[in-house]
Design brief:
Blueprint (H helix, E strand, L loop, with lengths): L2 H28 L5 E3 L1 H6 L7 E8 L5 E2 L4 E7 L4 E7 L11 E8 L5 E8 L8 H10 L6 H4 L4
Parallel strand pairs: 1-2, 5-7
Antiparallel strand pairs: 2-4, 2-6, 3-4, 4-5, 6-7
Length: 153
């Protein structure tokens, strides 16, 4: 091989190693950040392993919100078929209320209570998180016509 060919080969190998290393670092950094969406029915069917981070979504069960003096809030999330108890310590979004579409991010404890580290609520009357809307459609509790439902989805 000539000198120029060896230099090109070394440059190509170096570039492949750098790209592979960068890809590996990005995947390792994102591994803990990836959260799968789960409905309460899916939690009841097959509980995720304790300590695994995922997103739980559905509607806040009417009358289930309990606030503790220490800032902890307990409530239940339902997909109209099953419900999961949720505990959260922190400030809730302004639009959080009974019957509200929410997505919570956290882990399922061994006692079956979902410990949320983040709670997201819909931002206006015409929006519901995509995952929650799809789960409600699959469960048969979705009405595409807000006027018939009496309220926007």
């Amino acid at each position: 091989m000539r000198l120029r060919q060896r230099q090109r080969l070394a440059l190509v190998i170096l570039a492949v190693l750098l790209i592979g290393g960068a890809t590996g670092l990005v995947l390792a950094a994102l591994q803990d950040k990836v959260a799968f969406f789960v409905t309460p029915s899916q939690v009841a069917q097959r509980s995720p392993e304790p300590g695994r981070r995922f997103r739980l979504g559905g509607l806040v069960v009417e009358g289930s919100i309990r606030r503790s003096p220490g800032g902890t809030v307990q409530f239940a999330v339902t997909d109209k078929a099953q419900a999961v108890q949720v505990t959260y310590h922190g400030l809730l979004p302004d639009l959080f209320r009974d019957g509200q579409g929410v997505v919570t991010d956290g882990v399922l404890r061994a006692d079956g209570v979902f410990e949320a580290s983040e709670v997201l609520a819909k931002h206006d009357e015409n929006y519901m998180p995509k995952e929650v809307a799809e789960a409600l459609k699959q469960a048969g509790y979705w009405n595409d016509n807000p006027a018939e439902a009496g309220e926007a989805p």
